[in-house]
Amino acid sequence: MSSTVPPFPRLDFKGWHIVLPERGRQFLLPSENPREPLEAKVAERKSGLWVLRTESGLGVVVPDGVDVIRNGTAVTGMAVLHQGDNLELGGRLAIYEEVQRLTLTLGDALVDRRCPHCFTALSVGSEVIRCPLCGEGYCPDCWEHLAGSRCCSRNCHFSPGSQGTHDE
Ligand SMILES: [Zn+2]
Ligand SMILES: [Zn+2]
To answer: In CATH, what is the architecture of 10-97?
Structure first.
């Protein structure tokens, strides 16, 4: 599997997962079968969980006729998802994962780019954290250092959390 096209961001339902739609797109996870996302037209008048991805790359959920719990609190209206969020949808549990930790391999787009924080050149074999919004690669330590602050890449507003990352 190529690491250049990661199946991120996604909702991990333990055993199966839903990869979020492309930026600016949305689909509905119908209550009766959330494994099969429906396009907007087909989804008319069905209840379920709308899953959106903003143009900037954020994951957003909007419950429609179903109860959805995020991190122990019912979602009213919409909720922007963050790395490690727990979602409960009709008794099913999912974890939101958007931050990818990977080891660079030959041909990865991040090889020869620099960590936006310390400017170290990334190379084959480097362990990096990929920013889910701008796609830049960081040293794991640098990413951790940015917790609570902002990605240093120009025009990127992603705020690295402290919930950890997912190994791929
Ligand atoms: Zn660095
Ligand atoms: Zn970024």
So the answer is: Sandwich (2.60)
